[in-house]
Amino acid sequence: MHQKAKFFLQTLRFGIARHGKYTQQQHDHQQFIDCCPWIKVRKYHNFKCLQNKCKKSISARTITSRRFSYMDLLNMEQENTKSLLINYLDSMEKFKKKIEASYDKYSLIMDNLEVMSGLFCIFLYVLGINSCEVLVRLEELSLYNAFVERIRISPGEEYMAASIKTSYSEDSTCVIVKLGKYPEVEDFIPNVFSFEWATDGILFYTCQKNLRCCNVFRTSFGNKKHTECIYTEQDPRFFVDLHCTSDKCFLTINSNSKTTSEVWLVDCHQPWNLPVLVQKRNSGIMYHIEHRNNELYILTNFGEPAEYKLMKTSINSCSMKNWQLIYTLKRKTKLIDLVMFKDHCVIFLKYCNQLYLNIISLNDHSIQSLKLPVWACACQLDTQPEDSSSSACSFQLSSPVHPPRQFIYNLVNGSLYKQAEQEEPIITDCHMARLEAKSKDGTLVPVTIFYKKNSESLQKRPLLIHVYGAYGVDLNMNFKAENQVLIEDGWILAYCHVRGGGELGLSWHAGGCLNNKLNGLADLEACIEFLHNLGFSEPVFTALTAYSAGGILAGALCNANPRLIRAVVLQAPFLDILNTMLDPQLPLTIEELEEWGDPSSDNRYMDYIKSYCPYQNIRPQTYPSIIITAYENDQRIPVEGILKYTQRLRKVITDQRHSRGRKMPNIILDVQAGGNHAAASWEDLVTEVCQKFSFK
């Protein structure tokens, strides 16, 4: 059974035996690869490569270098977790079959470009031929959660580059394979983050160190192998990655902070030339580049309103003063994705929490808008044909309870086509509603809910609240097989799109970051109270789940208004934000100053962050039950901070219980050996653990 399934079954025991009534299944651990259509990855049981390099990566992050006091606390927590969970072993078996059945039920209808957890072999499928050719066999790999992250084929199909990653580290190793009659591995490049081929045999790539990418390298393969650094970013707020334009004419070197962009161009026909700057960085201006017919198409927030716009300019005069406006998004519109075709630009966007497709003619700049199916909550763009004259745009739509469905938009006749029904039909007995809750300043906050039709007494049904609200990132609304099981068992699922996230565009993010962060907390409170007032559950049946930076709002709610919820599930949560932002030696502190503010140089931010920091605001009161999952190798959210939070919270609760004779809620910290913050499919685990909070 997959490691993540085992984790779910283990943590499932937390509340089931005490309150057991409702049950849940888990979604399979799946990965999707960003690659050419004919590359497939399938499960394989023999690997032999990267073993030494991966072992070094793991050993470098073992806990032997940590303080002895930290080790003591960690051991105490692990023993405490075991003692609390040991009584629920029978519950594990109870749900094991249901979880495995859930995996099997939907595995065949998920994206066919799928990377399973475990051990892999990479195949090249020749179009029109059923047989396949083994390109890389990674045998005897002593890692348990390795997966292929990305694949790139060189323009003439002479080389393949594939990045291999494990759950133990955020570092990837790039495998270079020389294609041909007898494919062979030519090289390994460690610590690679992004990579693109300029021509056959010339690869550009970035390397990640301490979660930062600042250098771009160019390397050539063949008889005269040569590697050199061709770009270095000096500002630690900026992160560098690579992109290839849709027409394969240019590579873009993208240097981005949270609020500002700078792009350099590499001509794929002249890859030995120095990169050319498009537009010097200007504070607060973000932009991204595509290319067509010697013109640059720029997606940018430059100008008013402060939302994304599509602009263009000649490749020979690419500075900002020459940018010409083509299209502007409406206010409170989320731009999801963009793809260029020969005569059209297709933009996927979200407006009023509904998905749309906007098709822009690149000849006369006319716009056609198409509302996508009302049930759709998430969109994933497929790899498009390399032929720029293609007239079809392929993509998938899904929701938390609807499996991905394939759609094709025909650019010639303007028609939208969907694939035939799958063997497993879309769920038919689940009702979906898009609502709006009024926050305390009058702002309307979108809420998406799912519940079983004809459910009796919704007020007595368990409610699972999802929240994130940071970095301008949307809540994950992709399909998860376990959500259907939750619906069948009577759960109400609610997704609160609070400020700080990106659901309503750039202004929605700005309204919930820096000195506006408390808006996100007010939004979350308003959403929960709104649902309760409408008759969707009540506090005693309500659980809250959050991941990573979403832990700030979840932890803040536990301090500010714990009466609204009974239980909280936190996955790799950010809980000690003040001390984190005061420590510039941590990998992401400087990079994230534009999101949270700088408490070390500005007392206003010091006081403001302190006012909502979950760790700083723990106080004697009645807290909900809380289970936290942390990961030993997490570079983004160090375990030490989570340990401190758990110890302080448990002490305050224990002292209060002794003084007032109150029942003590469960506070569990499960520190997973191995794993890291970016481990594949962690978000798929968040809803899985909600079953721990089945109520009487």
UniProtKB/TrEMBL annotation:
Entry's Gene Ontology cellular component terms: cytosol
Matches recorded under Pfam families: Peptidase_S9 (PF00326), Peptidase_S9_N (PF02897)
Residue ranges occupied by any Peptidase S9 prolyl oligopeptidase catalytic domain in the UniProt entry: 478-681
Cytoplasm among keywords: yes
Enzyme class of the recorded protein, top EC level: hydrolase
InterPro entries (UniProt xref): AB_hydrolase_fold, Pept_S9A_N, Peptidase_S9_cat, Peptidase_S9A, Serine_Peptidase_S9A
Highest taxon listed in the record's lineage: Eukaryota
GO molecular function, one term: serine-type endopeptidase activity
Keyword vocabulary terms for this entry: Cytoplasm, Hydrolase, Protease, Serine protease
Residues of the Peptidase S9A N-terminal domain: 148-416
Subcellular location: Cytoplasm, Cytosol
Keyword presence, Cytoplasm: yes
GO biological process, one term: proteolysis
Enzyme Commission number(s) from the entry: 3.4.21.-
Binding partners and assembly: Homodimer. Interacts with the AP-1 complex.
Functional summary from the UniProt entry: Serine peptidase whose precise substrate specificity remains unclear. Does not cleave peptides after a arginine or lysine residue. Regulates trans-Golgi network morphology and sorting by regulating the membrane binding of the AP-1 complex. May play a role in the regulation of synaptic vesicle exocytosis.
Membership in a protein family: Belongs to the peptidase S9A family.
Full protein name: Prolyl endopeptidase
Organism from which the protein derives: Monodelphis domestica
